[in-house]
């Protein structure tokens, strides 16, 4: 496995802890490592972990520092208050990522941007809202190892 894959799997596993039993607002229906369109989903909320750009700094001998941008996309659904539901789901994701009980990569991660659909999916998706949270994760790896 690669560092990149391990990081993305770690985030996915972290987010699977979002449940009412763990004091969050929701029981997440699923967390996947690919993009899924809202009309292909039957249960909400739904989270997707997506890899992004990776920048390298090679000034450290045989080590490289990587800054990996990762996106977490999420769908929430509430026909009366879709944006309120979206905000609660964003809150759950941020709290989960900030909790070292669930996220062992927390010290190397920082949120850098949140984008929302601004209610655009509400009409077509009957109460569905979407957000994309961009994170930057920093890690070091040896170029001697694959």
CATH class: Alpha Beta
Distance between the termini: 9 Å
What is the correct CATH architecture? 2-Layer Sandwich
State the CATH topology: STM4215-like
Helix/sheet category: alpha+beta
Element-level helix/strand string: HEEEHEHE
Strand order within the widest beta sheet: 1-2-3-5-4
Task: Write up what this structure looks like.
This protein is of the alpha+beta class and 146 residues long. It has a single domain (3-142), classed as 2-Layer Sandwich (STM4215-like). The protein is 23% helix and 38% strand. It has a 5-stranded mixed β-sheet. The radius of gyration is 16 Å and the shape is elongated.
Q: How would you summarize this macromolecular structure in one to three sentences?
A:
This protein is an alpha+beta fold and 146 residues long. 23% of the residues lie in helices and 38% in strands.
Name the descriptors.
38% strand, 146 residues, five-stranded mixed β-sheet, 3 helices, alpha+beta, STM4215-like
What topology emerges from the helices and strands here?
Blueprint: H1 3-15, E1 30-32, E2 46-60, E3 63-77, H2 82-97, E4 109-116, H3 120-124, E5 128-142
Parallel strand pairs: 1-2
Antiparallel strand pairs: 2-3, 3-5, 4-5
């Amino acid at each position: 496995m690669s560092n990149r894959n391990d990081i993305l799997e770690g985030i996915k596993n972290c987010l699977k802890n979002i449940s009412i039993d763990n004091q969050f607002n929701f029981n997440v229906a699923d967390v996947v490592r690919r993009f899924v369109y809202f009309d292909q989903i039957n249960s909400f909320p739904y989270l997707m972990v997506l890899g992004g750009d990776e920048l390298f700094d090679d000034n450290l001998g045989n080590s490289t520092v990587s800054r990996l941008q990762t996106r977490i996309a999420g769908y929430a659904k509430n026909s009366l208050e879709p944006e309120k539901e979206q905000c609660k789901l964003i809150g759950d994701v941020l709290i989960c990522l900030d909790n070292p009980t669930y996220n062992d990569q927390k010290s190397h991660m920082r949120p850098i941007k949140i984008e929302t659909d601004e209610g655009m999916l509400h009409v077509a998706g009957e109460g569905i809202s979407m957000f994309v949270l961009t994170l930057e994760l920093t890690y070091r790896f040896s170029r001697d190892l694959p």
